[in-house]
Amino acid sequence: MVDAAPAPDQLDLPKAQSGLALRKLISAPEFGPLVLVVLEIAVFTAFSPEFLSVLNISNTLTFTVELGLIALAMTLLMTAGEFDLSVGSLFGFAPVMMWTLYNAGLTSLGVAFVVSLAVAAGIGLVNGLFVTRLKIPSFLVTLGMLLVVRGTALFVTDGFPQRTWSAGGQWLAKTLVGDFYIGPFRVYASIFWFAAAAIVLGYVLTQSKYGNWIQATGGNPTAARARGVNVDGVKLALFVLTAVMSAFAGVISSIRTSAANPNSGSGYELEVIAMVVIGGTALTGGRGTIIGTVLGIFILRVMRNGIVMIGVPGLAYNIFIGAIILGMMALHSWLERRHQTGT
Amino acid sequence: MVDFLVRMERINKLFGRVQALEDVNFNVARQEIVGLLGDNGAGKSTLIKVLSGALQATSGDIYVRGRKAQIRNASDAIALGIETIYQDSALVTQLSIARNLFLGREPIKGPRFLNRMDTALMERVAGELLKRVGIGKTIPATTPISSLSGGERQAVAIARAMHFDSDLIILDEPTNNLGVAETQGVLRFVRNARDSGHSCILIAHNIHHVFQVVDRIVVMRRGRVVADDIDPNKTSVAEVEQVITGEGLSV
User: Fold this and answer.
1) How far is CA B16 from CA A141, B19, B144, B218, B225, in A?
2) One-character DSSP codes across A5-57
């Protein structure tokens, strides 16, 4: 079973065991990201004691899981050798659609929720069909879809945010992002959705036969097809999954912030892909890790939060993110080469 | 009448206006090793792809064990007991040996709907198979294919065909890029396959390799079968070369 949220103390565990376990840990693709996230937390805590405050941790976690849900699905899609640039626009579009339906009095919120996820699934399916049937690279297909979906959201709403404050008291809102306190911690229900998604998708990728098919699809589609794996089916399913997860994350975010802005989610696609790649999933497909992605999510969110906390201007955020991406890519390629030479 | 394992009748394959296969008849008997020869572009690969489900024939019939068969994709062919080992071994380099061996037919443990792979079983069986093809001593079944040599990869592909007990094993240029010892290993495997009840189709550019192991040689030229019953014991390599290039005598 996959551990969805690896605790930093996992690092200390194998030291008690044999040196072999330690070496295995170090050669794992998740090791680099793990060190980085621990390092980040240590540095930020040293500079700003506020960093580990209860309020800050619960705030960071809350927003983290919303992007994280997309990153988890994207991990599987990228392992299968494709990626999706339309996730950010779906993140904005799905809640706009849900609230428009609800506010117009057409349906209940629950039905509107299901309808918007179903539409997202349809959009994912179209992405997948363009890629698998017409053999157009996913970069171009999903770039086009990004513009179509974002444009639709803007057109439908005239560019204005949708009213959402009637969400209070709705069972749906409670289930998705209801908050409660564990001691001083304010916890949103969305973190459980994230944990559940991480466990399920981690299981699918590493333990189930579908995980083997996903990796084979990204690694060598010709070989996979020759073994009877339905390569196109795998890709279609993952495009749909990614689209639905993006819509789901968007709805969660809109309920939490009480705003359905047609512009929200802009630029998320690149941040999500960065999270996945930093975690150790290959951009070219064939190799993916959910644990790495969870770490990658935290690396970027902790960085965004931490540099603000220690007083670096927020506008400088991208400099650090860019540096992290370059650094991690260098590390992954170095590890890969060392691995290839058979050490 | 010979008891044919596979009978392909009047197979035609058109790519647009190009006729890659023209009225090809091709048979393989039980426990027979057939060498399929021909120059580049003669249609060998196309014929094999039709049989292994990678391509669909434009017209023509395929009979397997005397019954008419529909081979629409690779799964159909595998289900009929036809296993193909391609030039590039068709392995996923990122995956381990065990995961490659069972790709598409992973054993499941626990409840059906969880689709949980039985990794312990996969690794145990893979280890035994690797021993049978002679590379089990040094390489654990969890090794990714990317760290194997060309010969080792070919051995993994062969181990896969052996395990799933295919009646017909198609080897497409199995000795390409292999060292001398590795080539001998592959040829030994082909000979053993016949003894253990398998049929083989061997495609190779190297006529000498083909001569060493096959029972019968079929030659293709420009999409047609030009000779289909050459006995390697009664024919010389030079004669077969002439048939392949179409120079000198016409058959």
Assistant:
1) 28, 8, 40, 26, 21
2) S--GGGGTHHHHS-HHHHHHHHHSTTHHHHHHHHHHHHHHHHH-GGGG-HHHH
Token pair of A71 as six digits: 């990153």
Chain A, window 254-313: residues with a beta carbon less than 8 angstroms from a chain B beta carbon = 282, 286-287
Nearest CA to CA, how far is B236 from chain A (Å)?
36
* Cross-chain residue pair A340–B146, CB shorter than 8 Å: yes
CATH superfamily of B1-81+168-251: P-loop containing nucleotide triphosphate hydrolases (3.40.50.300)
**Domain ranges for chain A:** 30-337
For the record, the structure tokens of B138 come out as 């040094």
Interface predicted TM-score (ipTM) over 0.85: no
Rounded to whole angstroms, the Cα distance separating B80 from A180 reads 59
Domain boundaries for CATH 3.40.50.300 within chain B: 1-81+168-251
What residues contact B106, with CB distance under 8 A and at least 6 apart? A209, A212, B117, B118, B122
CA distance A90 to B63: 50
Residue by residue, pLDDT tens for chain B (251 residues) are 567 889 998 999 998 888 889 999 999 998 889 999 888 888 888 899 899 888 888 999 999 988 888 888 888 888 888 888 876 667 888 888 889 888 888 888 878 778 888 888 888 888 888 877 666 567 888 888 888 877 778 778 877 877 776 788 888 887 777 777 777 777 887 888 788 788 889 888 788 888 888 899 999 988 888 888 888 878 888 888 888 887 755 44
Integer Rg of chain A from CA: 20
CA A281 to chain centre: 12
CATH number of the domain at A30-337, out of 1.20.950, 3.40.1130, 1.10.3470, 2.60.40? 1.10.3470
State the nearest Cα–Cα gap between A170 and chain B, in angstroms: 33
Contact A213 B115 (CB under 8 A): no
Q: Which two tokens stand for residue A28?
A: 């794992």
Tokens representing residue B186 in the block? 């592959």
